Amino acid sequence: MIRPIMKDEVFLAQKSVPATKADLPVVEDLIDTLRANLDGCVGMAANMIGVKKRIIVFAIGEMIVPMINPIIVKKEKSYVTEESCLSLTGVRQTTRYETIVVEYLDKDFKKQKGTFTGFVAQIIQHEIDHCNGIII
To answer: How far apart are alpha carbons 5 and 120 in whole angstroms?
Structure first.
């Protein structure tokens, strides 16, 4: 189900809690909502649709990748960039890392660990910031 985008910064600044298997419908709603907004968005976190759970999704081309309870366990080579967000107005400056290692659960709740670089790493960092209540 496509859900409305949360724009309340007080809500967005709250930390999300770990997701459970009961939250799988939220994963599907996030995927649907991202797919509906791909013209102006490459990633989303659950709090962007009003759910304070540690779930993110991001697009790599046509493929949408979900991550449940993602945690960055390693980051290398910081840089400063500017980002926008579907939940916020304008462009804001932030620090990101060129390479990150993320531990997360997939949609089957199997543990995964992946190394991500470049723009994909930037998207993941932005969405994990959402989970942590960090507003760029």
So the answer is: 22
